[in-house]
Amino acid sequence: MPFAPVLHAEFLKIRTLRSLYGALLALLAVSTAFSAVAGVSETSDPEFDPLYMAVSGVIPGQIAVLAFGALAVSSEFHSGALRLSLAAVPRRGRWFTAKLTAVAVPALLTGLVTGAASLSAARAGLGAAADGLTAAEQTRGVLGCGIYLTLMALFAAGLTALLRSGMAALGILIPFILIVSFVIGDAAGTVAEFLPDRAGQVVLHETWDGTLGPWTGLAVTALWTAAAIAAGAWSVRHRDA
């Protein structure tokens, strides 16, 4: 089967799962709400970063996009759905590529909208404190949100394919991002900058004094994501449906 109808079928699957819509809506709502609250925070700190403050709602909101990526893949492991998918598309690599594309496109679009909405909501509260942000910095922040959230969705999708369970993947990723990353960050210094979440979040800062820059940080996150996808692809190719 050619790639186009396979991709169309995977988009149809995404559209028919209401939980996936809920995850994307939660991403937008939670991120925008947290950024709006952050926008009325104290701005007298000399280390105040208006760009990060404006899009900081993405940090808690990313849990929703992890759930989106995990649920989109884990649905295939319920009630023999994967066997049906592979019966229709025997070339497993083609099917997995279509599945990842169907995850990436809505994650990217929602991520871009989320970044723009978060920035607008926070700027309304920050007022003059955000006047120093240039158009280029704001554009980078919005694009960075979209790319970072897409990479995290694909990271979750790849790990879910490897573990064959969305709950197992989220059981690893959510505690890691909410707890372990911060603990390691406090203890490991520079090494922590290369963790998948911390590296990608550099793009959300106006300035950063660490080893990585905005785009090199996203590149590190992309490498982590590529590794998770490669592991997931191996599992799809070599394990029984």
Give me a quick take on this structure:
This protein is mainly α. It has ten helices and no strands.
If you had to describe this structure to a student in words, what would you say it looks like?
There is one protein chain. This protein is mostly helical. 76% of the residues lie in helices and 0% in strands. It has ten helices and no strands. It has helices at residues 3-16, 18-38, 50-55, 58-74, 81-88, 92-126, 135-163, 166-188, 196-200, 214-238. Helix 4 runs antiparallel to helix 8. The relative contact order is 0.14. The mean pLDDT is 89.
What's the story with the biggest beta sheet?
none
Give the integer mean of the pLDDT values. 89
Helix run count: 10
**Estimated structural class:** mainly alpha
The ordered string of helix (H) and strand (E) elements is HHHHHHHHHH
Radius of gyration, in angstroms, nearest whole number:
19 Å
Q: Please state roughly what percent of the residues sit in beta strands, choosing from under 5%, 5-15%, 15-25%, 25-35%, 35-45% or over 45%.
A: under 5%
Report the uncertain regions: none
What is the straight-line distance between the termini? 19 Å
Large-scale geometry = globular
Give the % helix.
over 70%
Q: Based on DSSP secondary structure assignment, what is the total number of beta strands?
A: 0
List the helices and strands and how they pair.
Layout: H1 3-16, H2 18-38, H3 50-55, H4 58-74, H5 81-88, H6 92-126, H7 135-163, H8 166-188, H9 196-200, H10 214-238
Helix pairs in contact: 1-6, 2-4, 2-6, 4-6, 4-7, 4-8, 6-7, 7-8, 7-10
